[in-house]
Amino acid sequence: MATFERRIFLGMGLRVGLGASAVLALAGCESSQEASKLPGPAWPTDRRASQPSRSTAPSTPRPSGLPQNVVARTQWTRAKPIVALADPMGRVTRITIHHEGSTPFYSTAQGDVSRRLESIRAGHVSKGWADIGYHYVIDPSGRVWQGRPTSLQGAHVKDENPGNLGIMVLGNFETQRPTQAQLSTLDQFVASQMRQYGVSVRNVYTHRELRPTACPGRSLQAYMQQTRTSTGRMARA
Questions:
Q1: Is 164 within 8 Å of 203 (Cβ atoms)?
Q2: Which residues 6+ apart lie within 8 Å of 211 measured at CB?
């Protein structure tokens, strides 16, 4: 099935209606290009609604067990993925780490995180995507939140989504640093997903390692380079 690229204009706010109020839709994985001196993020592609879904795609997301201590998506949104716009995930063979890349985010309050995730989801859907692009999100307190169901391909790395589990760390790590709670959870959670799917640390990437982009920001990129080494915490978790 053919896919269509969409032009994303960095810096433009997309306004979407959420209930009775309008909020600024967040365009995840955006980063400060002046700071990074890297080209803008290469946006992934979901299929247009006018296209029929593949015959192999499930009519609804396949039920799957949620990892322990992960906050279910029902805790932050009532919306369901638009399954006709997504492909089935298939076997997970790699994992990619992102930052949100919008305005810095520091809050550890569950309500603030819920609203932020819903804004990101609404912004992604307004682009014609099936759902929020990431499978999991790690907030500043170290909680892990369920994003797009893992039965469906994500929309987080252009042309690299099949079999690719997308994990986003909430914040903009061009201009802020991940919290210690985020880093500790990132190491442990990614390691648990590596074990679950049989993914080697060699197949754990950051966004910029697959496409030309500043994501996941300079601070998180530096940490990922260290934690994946033979003596790093992710590799040893």
A1: no
A2: 41, 42, 157, 158, 159, 160
Sign of the CA dihedral running 44, 143, 31, 13: positive
Q: Which domains, from first to last, does the chain contain?
A: 71-236 (3.40.80.10)
Q: At 69, list the tokens.
A: 């201590």
SS3 146: strand
Give the C-alpha separation, 154 to 201, whole Å: 20
Q: What is the pLDDT of residues 154-169, one digit of tens each?
A: 999 999 999 999 999 9
Entry pTM: 0.77
| 202 token code pair | 């060699």
In 10 A of CB 56, how many CB atoms? 8
Render pLDDT for 36-81 as a digit per residue (tens, 0 to 9): 333 333 334 444 333 333 333 333 333 357 999 999 999 999 999 9
Instruction: Give, as one character, the DSSP assignment of residue 155.
Output: S
